[in-house]
Amino acid sequence: MHPTPPLVAHPALLGTTAHASPLTPPTLGFYLRPRPHGFAAHICASPQNLCAVRQLARAELLAQGIEDEAVDSAQLVLSELVGNSVRAYGDYVPLVVEVYVTAHGVAVNVHDPDPGALPMRRATPLDSAEAEGGRGLGLVELLAPGWDVRRSAIGKQVRCRVPAEPGWD
């Protein structure tokens, strides 16, 4: 039995427009599932797959009428959450990354396989010149106030909402 090849992020699949930026073809360990106003990407965390999901998020959010600043914020939140999972569980951890637009902003959710380990914000000030790390969840809180963590069928889900006005009614 041959594995199903990963779905390629095609503009028609996600409702993106022809002027959206071209997407990096996904690598192994990348499965894309469209959802209303966004997508869910099942990935094995790797630099290539993070790059592909960031590009996909940018193209989809711009196609949904989200302004550049909110798109940049959503991409940063996505990167921080995936990075936290990689730091906690190692390279190639299986993740589900959801990005979609709601009437209340851009939802960025990352599911990982461990329901017990909860992300915790360190006391590192965002403007600390000496700190080498520990600012990620502070940035997430700044860009997506009120993020939370829930258990999910996969393990746990970190849920964020980046404030933004959708470009549709």
UniProtKB/TrEMBL annotation:
Keywords assigned: ATP-binding, Kinase, Nucleotide-binding, Serine/threonine-protein kinase, Transferase
Pfam family, one: HATPase_c_2
Gene3D superfamilies: Histidine kinase-like ATPase, C-terminal domain
GO molecular function, one term: ATP binding
Xref: SUPFAM superfamilies: ATPase domain of HSP90 chaperone/DNA topoisomerase II/histidine kinase
Keyword Metal-binding: no
Domain Histidine kinase/HSP90-like ATPase: 45-160
PANTHER family found in the cross-reference section: ANTI-SIGMA-F FACTOR RSBW, ANTI-SIGMA-F FACTOR RSBW-RELATED
Protein name listed in UniProt: ATP-binding protein
Protein species of origin: Streptomyces doebereineriae
High-level lineage: Bacteria, Bacillati, Actinomycetota, Actinomycetes, Kitasatosporales
